[in-house]
Design goal:
two-stranded antiparallel sheet, membrane, transferase, Peptidoglycan glycosyltransferase, transferase activity, Beta-lactam/transpept, alpha+beta, elongated, Beta-lactamase
């Protein structure tokens, strides 16, 4: 019986579809979601400018730029092109925690996608607005501190490039 259970567990692991059954921190790809939400709410515009000094301090926590560079003054598009964490921390702050959380849900990142495949994980890991402080908002705005499935993330990105449809 023990050998049978071990074999069954090994087979399930071998055939598990990680794209729908595992969670991960999306990282910089999430900047697309933050960008879309901030533009949609009017928190930022295409002409908004942000300052990257290579790092930014939020409530006593230092965050570094993804590439370790100092970009200086940059537009939203420039910040996205160079994957600038300080830029997106500022975007997230302008967006605000309630809007951030509302758009996290609106992009389908709180629920299963409903794909007709076995093994889809039915949850994600995220902060709600009442549990989110400035440090959590900062890290979430550039794709850290939340976990989603690969399928949830690609579905959200597709919504951005398809005009939210």
């Amino acid at each position: 019986e023990e050998r049978s259970k071990a074999l069954q567990t090994a087979q399930q692991a071998q055939w598990r579809n990680k794209a729908i059954s595992d969670l991960y921190e999306p990282g910089s790809v999430f900047k697309l979601i933050t960008c879309a939400a901030a533009l949609d709410t009017g928190a930022v515009t295409r002409n908004s400018r942000f300052v990257c000094a290579g790092k930014i301090n939020v409530a006593g926590t230092n965050f570094r730029c993804a590439n370790g560079h100092i970009h200086g003054s940059e537009t939203l598009a420039q910040g996205l092109a160079v994957s600038c964490n300080p830029c997106f921390i500022q975007v997230g702050a302008r967006l605000g925690k309630q809007n951030f959380c509302d758009y996290f849900a609106a992009f389908g990142l709180r629920a299963a996608t409903g794909i007709d495949l076995p093994g889809e994980i039915k949850r994600s890991e995220y902060y709600t607005a009442d549990r989110m402080g400035p440090v959590e908002l900062a890290s979430c705005s550039f794709g850290q501190s939340s976990k989603v499935s690969y399928l949830q993330m690609i579905t959200a990105v597709c919504a951005v490039v398809n005009g939210a449809s």
